[in-house]
C-alpha cells in the first residue's frame, strides 16, 4: 500500500521525472520542449530547494516516489528568491529568447518573468502548492492526504491560506481542488486559481 513520507534530497530526480510525466495537463510532457529539464526547474525543484520541509512524497510499497506535494509558505518571498537567485543560474543554458513563437521559448520567458509578486496580492492566501501524482497514485484519495500533510505544516507556521493555479485545459485538476475543500478565487482565459483557508 502506498504511504506518505517527508522529502529527501535523493528524491529530486524522481520528482523531476514525475513533474515531467504529468505536466501536459496531467499527461506526459516528455519531449514537448526542446529540453525536458525546463519544466522541473520551474515547477518542482525550486520548491524542494527552498522549502524541503514543505515537501511530502507519496511512495509505492518499495519506497519509490509516485507523487508529491511541494510548496512555499510565502509566495511573495519565494518569487523574489526565484527571480533573483534560482532562475539566473540558467541564464547561459537557457538565455532569454528573442521571440516567443514556440512553447519552449514561452516557458523560458516565464522563468525570467517571475520575481515580481507583491505581498498584497497574496494577503489572504500567502502560501502556494504544486501537487502531481502518477496514474498509479491517483483515484484512491492520496491527493487529499498530501494536501492534509502540507496544510498541517502550514498551519503550524500560522499561514492564513494556500493557493494553487491550474490550466483550464486540465479537467482532472479543475475537479480535484473543489472536491478537497478549495474555493475559486481567481480566473482568466487560460487558468483557474483555487484557495484553501487555513485559519
TrEMBL record:
InterPro entries: Acyl_CoA_acyltransferase (IPR016181), Glycosyl_Hydrolase_84 (IPR051822), GNAT_dom (IPR000182). Signal peptide: none annotated. It comes from the Bacteria. Pfam families: Acetyltransf_1 (PF00583). Residues 2-199 form the N-acetyltransferase domain. Gene3D superfamilies: 3.40.630.30. GO terms for molecular function: acyltransferase activity, transferring groups other than amino-acyl groups. This is Acetyltransferase (GNAT) family protein.
Amino acid at each position: 500500500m502506498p504511504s506518505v513520507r517527508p522529502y529527501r534530497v535523493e528524491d529530486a530526480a524522481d520528482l523531476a521525472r514525475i513533474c515531467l510525466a504529468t505536466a501536459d495537463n496531467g499527461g506526459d510532457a516528455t519531449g514537448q520542449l526542446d529540453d525536458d529539464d525546463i519544466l522541473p526547474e520551474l515547477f518542482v525543484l525550486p520548491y524542494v530547494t527552498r522549502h524541503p520541509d514543505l515537501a511530502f512524497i507519496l511512495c509505492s510499497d518499495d519506497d519509490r516516489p509516485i507523487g508529491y506535494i511541494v510548496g512555499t509558505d510565502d509566495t511573495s518571498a519565494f518569487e523574489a528568491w526565484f527571480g533573483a537567485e534560482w532562475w539566473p543560474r540558467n541564464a547561459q543554458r537557457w538565455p532569454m529568447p528573442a521571440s516567443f513563437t514556440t512553447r519552449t521559448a514561452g516557458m523560458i520567458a516565464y522563468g525570467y518573468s517571475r520575481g515580481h509578486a507583491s505581498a498584497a496580492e497574496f494577503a489572504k492566501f500567502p502560501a502556494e502548492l504544486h501537487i502531481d501524482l502518477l496514474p498509479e497514485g491517483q483515484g484512491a484519495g492520496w491527493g487529499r492526504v498530501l494536501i492534509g500533510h502540507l496544510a498541517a505544516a502550514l498551519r503550524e507556521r500560522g499561514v492564513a491560506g494556500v493557493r494553487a493555479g491550474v490550466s483550464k485545459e486540465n479537467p482532472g485538476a479543475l475537479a480535484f481542488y473543489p472536491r478537497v475543500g478549495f474555493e475559486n478565487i481567481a480566473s482568466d482565459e487560460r487558468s483557474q486559481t483555487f484557495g484553501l483557508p487555513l485559519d
